[in-house]
Amino acid sequence: MYRKILVALENGPADEALVPHVAELARRLGSELLLVHVADGWAARNFDQLKLAESAEMKADQDYLDRTAQRLRDAGLKVSAELALGNPPTEILKTAARHACDLIAMTSHGHKIIGDIFLGSTIDKVRHNTMIPILVVRAGTGTAAAAS
Predict the structure, then answer these.
(1) Inter-axis angle of helices 15-29 and 56-74, to 10 degrees?
(2) What is the CATH number of domain 4-147?
(3) CA-based R_g, the chain, Å
(4) Distance from C-alpha of 12 to C-alpha of 146, rounded to nearest angstrom
């Protein structure tokens, strides 16, 4: 059903809720996982335009992706990883399309409506701009919910 799952990682505690869900799903379905983190600091957002050197944040993010991917490979899963640079919703959507992903997995922090107005919601922007199904796991609870 899901051959390639894009897993949007934050490089933070929320990933601890998401990774076990997608690992088990991939194991049961024989899916490939594509781990993606979008570095969105100033250097990452201007990296190509200004021909900048890789920032400490970008190096740390790549190291995190590599370690997470290796841990999942060691568990017997087929995993690739990609560090994207820029606006998270835009880069998640572009990466999912480029790699022909058929599921996007993300975490939700459970902001209230007012928080989403001021902070924005990556999930909201992704779900309104894709036809790819989205698996949402609430950070810190281990509870999954489907959205599309």
Answers:
(1) 40
(2) 3.40.50.620
(3) 15
(4) 22
Per the confidence metrics, is the pTM higher than 0.85? no
User: Which residues lie closer than 8 Å to 73 by C-beta, 6 or more apart?
Assistant: 79
Measure the CA–CA gap between 65 and 116, rounded to whole angstroms.
27
Nearest C-alpha neighbor of 104 from the set 145, 143, 72, 133: 133
Q: Which tens digit of pLDDT belongs to each residue from 90-125?
A: 999 999 999 999 999 999 865 555 444 444 578 888
Task: Measure the CA–CA gap between 64 and 60, rounded to whole angstroms.
Answer: 6
How many residues in total does the chain contain?
148
**Closest C-alpha among 3, 8, 4 to residue 108:** 8
Q: Where are the domains of the chain?
A: 4-147
